[in-house]
User: What shape does this take?
Amino acid sequence: MSRTRQPSSRRIGAAERAIALLDTLADAGELGTNEIARRTGMTPSTVSRQLGTLAASGLVERVAATGRYRLVRIVQLANALLARLDVRAVARPHLEELVRVTGETATLSVPGEEDAVTIDFVSGSHQIQPVSRLGRPSVAYATSAGKVMLAFSGRTLPAEPYRAYTPRTITDSKALVREIERVRERGYAQAIEEREPGLSAIAVPVRSSRGELDAIVALQGPSSRFDKKAIGAALPVLLEQGRAISRELGWRAD
Assistant: This one.
């Protein structure tokens, strides 16, 4: 560390080579010495020395049956880091970006016991906006966030009877099954005046590093303004921000 407490700009060649080797194993899985040398541009002797040092520290291991090397402890370190990531801190800039682009209120929810629960939100920039509050439940069968929870959490659908919050609320279990299947196929959910009259919303899943449903990002606004055309324009932005949050949490699509 320099006197200014900033990292030194001087680079250490051995460390850079070790990082390149680790990146190569991370991308390709198990590799032999010669293959790593070919991919990194290092000599086989340099790769061999690097592997010996990394193996001694427990970052990689040699597979006796194949003679190849693979990552070990670095995977554990990465998982420990991902476990400490706060989805609210990761998602907040993306909620703000959604509001900047669409003008509508953006919310972040997590799966609860029965419904999705709001843990953060950014109010929209328009003068008239729906009211959001922390801890507010999103009814599983009557909201976009709730439908995403049902579609991607693996839990069973709620049993009837379903309360009709508005004339548009789904109150039939067979209709709900069809709706949740559509959500899975499309990768997003929408609720047009199903929970509250005059309120429209769309929502997408946020994945954890294991691909599990970690949270739900949604946009909501008055139906008079957040209509079919506005929803169509906002949907690609919402899908991209949902994927971006997932990537920051460690998720990688197949």
